[in-house]
Amino acid sequence: xxxxxxxxxxxxxxxxxxxxxxxxxxxxxxxxxxxxxxxxxxxxxxxxxxxxxxxxxxxxxxxxxxxxxxxxxxxxxxxxxxxxxxxxxxxxxxxxxxxxxxxxxxxxxxxxxxxxxxxxxxxxxxxxxxxxxxxxxxxxxxxxxxxxxxxxxxxxxxxxxxxxxxxxxxxxxxxxxxxxxxxxxxxxxxxxxxxxxxxxxxxxxxxxxxxxxxxxxxxxxxxxxxxxxxxxxxxxxxxxxxxxxxxxxxxxxxxxxxxxxxxxxxxxxxxxxxxxxxxxxxxxxxxxxxxxxxxxxxxxxxxxxxxxxxxxxxxxxxxxxxxxxxxxxxxxxxxxxxxxxxxxxxxxx
Length: 349
Fold this sequence. Notes:
The chain is mainly alpha-helical and 349 residues long. The chain is built from 13 helices and no strands. The longest helix is centred in the N-terminal third of the chain and has 41 residues, at 2-42.
């Protein structure tokens, strides 16, 4: 009887803790979507048209454009990226605490069931508030005189892309958490997953123009491997996907030839997210319980990560001292100092 009461009380406490997160997400999205939309639509003014029909058409186009921008793109996308990182930590941060790990593993559930329940709860905690605020935003748009037939296709496709954005960034954050055993190393690992390859791409794109200007010209480095690396990131893929979506529907509203929807990019991002989640579940099953509190959970990943970070730091040090002083001595010093400092920091972390 005592254990039954304790279990019921624990479930109630856990339910209350889970409800606080969706409530916070709902409040933030409420200001980002319906409230922001109302202020934006009320502030639209169209001038410079002598013809009343043209002025009315421009006004309706502005209403539709602002509605799609606020409900399907813009701040909402970045909020969902932030929620993805927050939900990954909320759902799996117990892996960094020994007591909570022992409790979770004592439950009559397999690791696969626990992982799937955590992921499904994360999806519900974010997507339900998003759906509620989206419906409220559509109601506000309809009341404000927006022609729903013109904005619904753009909003619905934007919602699909936003869900893919959330899933991709969530899977990347969970992967970083599966590889690390401390909060600090998880934050560092998440930043690496989101920004390592774009940073490396920027440096590699700049190096040919600095050192081989005779052969590189003005754009070969950017069009080559540097441009490819710039797109190997959940963050950059999210931004590019929503940017291409916005260009498509902006052109349609202005009766111009639209660009193609980024359907292939969205499908590839969704596939990448599902592969990352499958890899996360595999690592979750392989993860040793006694690794909680350690910097890296899998020792085989320590050396490759240290080498990659040291190489990036060396390139950054070389580029920085190249800008300060173009003498070869300072460039060599900057490269060596950045590499050594990065190596020492990764060892300490």
